[in-house]
Write a structure and sequence with these properties.
The chain has about 325 residues and is an alpha/beta fold. It contains ten helices and eleven strands.
Length: about 325
């Protein structure tokens, strides 16, 4: 190749590079014009500009928004999730511990498990996603969040109670185990709840190498009215949801068309969580999933993601603030 030909090739390459760069800039400008505040999605969002833009525009135009909040929302705050393949506490399957039968068999073990969860939740602080979801209520008054979490972090993030429905109870509520007693205490944040359950930083009772205590029954939490054992006022496997919670959700769903449903930090593969997605879909909602794993398609098409829906892969503590910033701003 002579020098003249080499110079021509260099010139063509530079022109092609400049042209490609100009196209890229024009495309970016076009995308910015579609977004109200002129921002682009954060680099960690594994989603195209077009999908991000369509979600933001749909969110802006939505009035009735339903959210389903799961354990993944609180994972970044340091709250153990006990879900999936790692759903064990010590050598115990957490789903087997969370039953009335397990409590009746070994109340000492159960209270040590729940006292540990209370301790972890009290040490944790709400993350940005908790705060952004709470702030969304100020922008969208008809928004309702259904929380499967019992850690109290949404409440501590100042999520308005009129826009939040707990369905599994709270770690910080306790009730009497006697069928003849109606004692219920809410908002008990004592840590430990009784002296026999005290934890120290030097002893991690989640570690199977650390021996658990065999706490005598009379040293466990007792009802101040009838002296029966107290238990966490959470919904265990095999127990029905509280009727007022179900009625409130059904009343909201009966209120008209649902514009958007956000599924946050949960696979929503079990009922009644899956039923809420089904009901919202039937009421006209498009679905946005914020989770580390993409939901599997179900035999019923109402349960799977459709072409017009969105999937934001990653930790909800990051993806929720990055996608809702167009509505709630950057200060959350």
């Amino acid at each position: 190749m002579n020098l003249d030909s080499y110079a021509v090739d260099i010139s063509r390459t530079k022109r092609a590079t400049r042209a490609a760069e100009e196209v890229r800039k024009q495309y970016a400008k076009q995308q910015r014009r579609k977004i109200r505040t002129g921002t682009l999605p954060a680099p960690n969002l594994n989603i195209s500009l077009d999908s991000y833009t369509s979600f933001v525009k749909h969110l802006e135009g939505s009035t009735r928004i339903l959210a389903l909040l799961g354990a993944g929302l609180s994972a970044a705050s340091g709250v153990p999730t006990f879900r999936g393949a790692g759903g064990f506490w010590r050598e115990h399957d957490a789903t087997q511990l969370a039953t009335p039968e397990a409590f009746a068999k070994d109340p000492s073990l159960l209270w040590q498990f729940y006292n540990y969860r209370r301790h972890c939740a009290l040490k944790a602080v709400p993350n940005r996603a908790h705060k952004v979801l709470a702030k969304l209520a100020g922008k969208k008054p008809e928004y309702l969040a259904i929380s499967q979490n019992i850690d109290g972090l949404s409440e501590r993030a100042k999520h308005p109670s009129e826009n939040l429905q707990l369905v599994h109870g709270s770690l910080f509520d306790v009730k009497c185990t006697s069928s003849d007693c109606v004692y219920l205490e809410t908002g008990n944040i004592a840590d430990p709840i009784v002296p026999a359950l005290e934890l120290t930083e030097q002893h991690n009772i989640s570690d199977v190498q650390f021996p658990l205590k065999n706490i005598p029954r009379d040293e466990l939490p007792h009802c101040p009215k009838c002296r029966s054992l107290l238990r966490p006022a959470v919904i265990w496997f095999g127990e029905p949801l509280q009727r007022p919670a179900i009625d409130r959700i059904h009343h909201w769903l009966d209120g008209g068309k649902v514009d958007l449903m956000m599924v946050v930090g949960t696979s929503a593969t079990v009922w009644p969580a899956a039923n809420y997605i089904y009901a919202a879909r039937n009421a006209g909602a498009r679905i946005a999933v914020f989770n580390t794993e993409k939901p599997e398609m179900d035999d019923d098409p109402a349960m799977g993601l459709r072409e017009q829906d969105w999937f934001f892969k990653g930790d909800a503590a990051a993806t929720i603030p990055d996608t809702l910033k167009e509505i709630v701003g950057f200060s959350a």
